[in-house]
Automatic annotation (TrEMBL):
Name of this chain's protein: Probable nitronate monooxygenase
Species of the source: Selenihalanaerobacter shriftii
CDD domains (alphabetical): NPD_like
An example Gene Ontology molecular-function term: nitronate monooxygenase activity
Annotated function: Nitronate monooxygenase that uses molecular oxygen to catalyze the oxidative denitrification of alkyl nitronates. Acts on propionate 3-nitronate (P3N), the presumed physiological substrate. Probably functions in the detoxification of P3N, a metabolic poison produced by plants and fungi as a defense mechanism.
Keywords attached to this entry: Dioxygenase, Flavoprotein, FMN, Oxidoreductase
Tree of life domain: Bacteria
Keyword flag Oxidoreductase: yes
Keyword Plastid carried by entry: no
Amino acid sequence: MNLPRLKIGDIVAKLPIIQGGMAVKVSTAPLVAAVADEGGIGLIAGSGIEIDELKEEIRRSKKMTEGIVGVNIMVAASEFKELVQASINEGIDLIVAGAGFSRDLFTLGKDNNVPVVPIVSSVRLAKISEKLGASAIVVEGKEAGGHLGTDQSMKSLVKKIVDTVKIPVIAAGGIIDGKDIAEVLNMGADGVQMGSRFVASEECEVASEFKELYINATEEDSILIDSPVGLPGRALKNKFTEKLGSSDIEDGTFSCDYICLKKCSRVFCIIKSLIEAKRGDMEKGLVFAGEETHRINDILPVRKIIDNLVSEAKNFLNREESEDE
């Protein structure tokens, strides 16, 4: 039994796998292109960077692959509309948007014939998205890394949503291996979005210290932090998170070189901390990661990761099919 293709608007991916758009500068061209080359959908992280940087990253990705390349942009970003328009101008294949909800995004997508895929965490937003013209939705549960919009599990949300909308449903949060993929496909999901597994890849352009935190993580290392975005964020324990809430972080002298958010709690600079993490500074850097990151034990090439995922998913689906006969 082969895995189903994933159709979003007019684009069709050979595999029902989307690589999550992880910011800041975690999901960049080499990772995106490698996933796209294997038949999945690669997403550039379009948040926390300048418009010209995003345009260059899209161009770099498109030079490296003929596969499907999208962008993930945080609605909470101060230049959200400008980043979306720049992506459209550069010929991006689809736009995924989370950390907020934008009705204007659907108009931009429709006017430019670019599929729009919002990240939702409730039945209500799933229905609204379909009504406004979403080509698909990413249903994200509490297990996901980064900013969260719910305290409900991914599977509980998928069960509620798959029967309420007719557009493709893409499950996100806590998906690490092929068995996870097979389980949500059996639940009625059309595909999956995976972030954390692809961080621990050779093509991901983050420092070795970042990846080592992933592959050495224990179950207890997954924590929730209060993000300046105004949402909880799922991260891994490190020296930076140990300082959160202390005078070392919240000393009343907050300063920021970035104009990145429409609204900011000004407790610490989210963009600066994410950039420091990408560089490998675990004392100043915040490392976002999914709740199931402790199940990742190795750093592999993207091709090998996807081969493993597909093989595991097929084996699980075929075994279940045989048991039902």
